[in-house]
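pinging the channel bc i need a second pair of eyes. not urgent but kinda urgent?? the chain im working w is below, pasted from the shared doc
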Amino acid sequence: MNITNEIITGYIESLYVGTSPELEELRCFAEEKRVPIILKDTEGLLLSLLKIKKPERLLEIGAAIGYSSCCFANACGCNVTTIEADEKTYETAVNNIKNLGFDDKVNVLYGDARKVLEEMAATVDETGLYDVVFIDAAKSHYKAFWDLALPLCKNDALIICDNVLMKGMTASDEYDPNRKYKTSIRRMREFINYISNLGYADTCVLPVGDGVSISVIDKA
């Protein structure tokens, strides 16, 4: 289900142009196999932000099959560190990234992101901080991912979170009539409220794709 009018969504998707034939082929494969990757309008927004921000280093939480990390590296030449918790998906991501020629730009880490982020924060120095963090993993853990990623952020970093509207369920219970996702919805609402009221972050939530939050960090 789209969270905006289907006619508008269809029109926006008709404007989509892939960043390369190889990435477009991987997107088609993912869509055919129903592998979750960033939606087309979300991709367009993120790549435009990256071209404005011009990050040197980007941290992604939730590699999936490696599509988005390759898009990011391709768009602005940044170095990407991406984390994947599922072993089979991790192996697929590593293979895709290598086959697409981005293994010199994208480093895939395997494990529960919460543990991996803790380990990264314990050893990071100023040269290892990130300009952008992209969170696109288990929705119930977004707050934990945010808090654990914050020590890895530069002072003026962007933290971008995908799927925050959860097919409209974050905005209204009417999109979850059987209350199947009650806990996830509650946690996402708590997370959105949390990041919207932080003194060190300016946050907006946009109805792009399945909902995207963009936060500008100011630790000063």
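so Strands lie at 57-61, 79-84, 106-110, 130-135, 153-162, 201-206, 212-217. and Residues 110 and 136 are 15 Å apart (CA to CA). — does that match what u expected or am i reading it wrong
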